[in-house]
Amino acid sequence: xxxxxxxxGQLGRMLALAGYPLANxxxxxxxxxxxxxxIGEVMVYTDQHHLDDFLAKVDLVTYEFEHLPVALVQAIExxxxxxxxxxxxxxxxxxxxxxxxFDRLGIPTPAYRLVEHADELEAAARELGCPVVAKSxxxxxxxxxxxxxxxxxxxxxxxxxxxxxxxxxxxxxxxxREVSIIAVRGRDGEVVFYxxxxxxxxxxxxxxxxxxxxxxxDSVQQTADGYIRALLDELDYVGVLTLELFQTRDGELLxxxxxxxxxxxxxxxxxxxxxxxxxxxxxxxxxxxxxDTAARxxxxxxxxxxxxxxxxxxxAIGDAHLHRYDKSERPGRKLGHVNLVAPTHGxxxxxxxxxxxxxxxxxxxxxxxx
Length: 370
Ligand SMILES: Nc1ncnc2c1ncn2[C@@H]1O[C@H](COP(=O)(O)OP(=O)(O)OP(=O)(O)O)[C@@H](O)[C@H]1O
Ligand SMILES: [Mg+2]
Fold this sequence. Notes:
Layout: E1 2-6, H1 10-19, E2 25-30, E3 41-44, H2 48-57, E4 60-63, H3 70-77, H4 86-92, H5 95-104, E5 112-115, H6 118-128, E6 132-136, E7 146-149, H7 155-162, E8 167-171, E9 177-185, E10 191-193, E11 197-202, E12 205-211, H8 218-234, E13 239-247, E14 253-259, H9 269-272, H10 277-285, E15 299-305, H11 311-315, E16 320-324, E17 334-341, H12 345-357
Parallel strand pairs: 1-2, 1-4, 2-3
Antiparallel strand pairs: 5-8, 6-7, 6-8, 9-10, 9-11, 9-13, 11-12, 12-15, 13-14, 15-17, 16-17
Helix pairs in contact: 1-10, 3-4, 6-7
The chain binds adenosine-5'-triphosphate (ATP) and magnesium ion (MG).
Magnesium ion (MG) binds at residues 244, 257.
């Protein structure tokens, strides 16, 4: 089976690494001009001719990047099966569509407004009560295209700095922690759920993900499972879907955003779960039985951001697994991640602190359960 992947970054690279044992081959179609997958065959899309070449090579198509022209994905769908569908891309690449779907399915979210003018932004900040977060409805990632507004008077500056025709404005959630739920739906509609992860962001960029959480109520996991199942079924989804949530003081979950793909907060599963999110995505899109999502042991994923640190020192930590993306160093850039595995959460946190000390740009690891 030759799998076509739209997008050619580290997520595609790790999909391919998981697919070789299943005798999959990979052809990537990059639309950014900066492919970094460094594996399989990488084609850079500039015209119809490249697209035809790509389609002639592949049996089915998936993606690792959702900021793609929907019309392009719809055109591909006419020729080859695409999993998840173009409809999932259409909804997930637009925060307004995403929130409307959450509303329709009864999935709670922070209070929000849609605005198309600086004055409307100021009014929304007043109505919702500051602080609020303003975000461009499309194209954001790693906290880009966002601004926190602490007083309505800051709205005009925020509007200029984001520089986008349409924004979503959200009440700033005073969360206890950020969490995510990752689930996989097969072609036959079977759904499996990973244990939820606690995610630590600094400056809008994910730094650490830890799963399973030692203090998570079963009922909270079940609530999240219910939310993501509703999304999967509604979209008739095939593959891995990720839902990012805020957990509030009273234990409630509020949906932040979703990603129609394997996700950074699921990288822990490569070494910490029976079946990784990458393998399970490939199983799902090929109509194969889904693998066990159970965690083997407490696991923490540490993102390597900006500078690589000393890989040999990281590998000297027991049960540490380094995944490098073969990218050049640049401030704020995701260069790789380390998965640390330990029998107890106490032992795990010791390894996490040791690892963080070896990474020059690492943020302080501080989890809600400590
Ligand atoms: N309404 C909010 N209240 C509090 N914090 C928020 C809110 N919205 C966003 N944040 C913070 O900013 C981070 C990034 O926001 P969000 O997930 O919407 O953006 P993104 O750029 O799409 O991120 P990603 O890297 O996940 O694609 C969140 O993980 C959270 O830490
Ligand atoms: Mg996010």
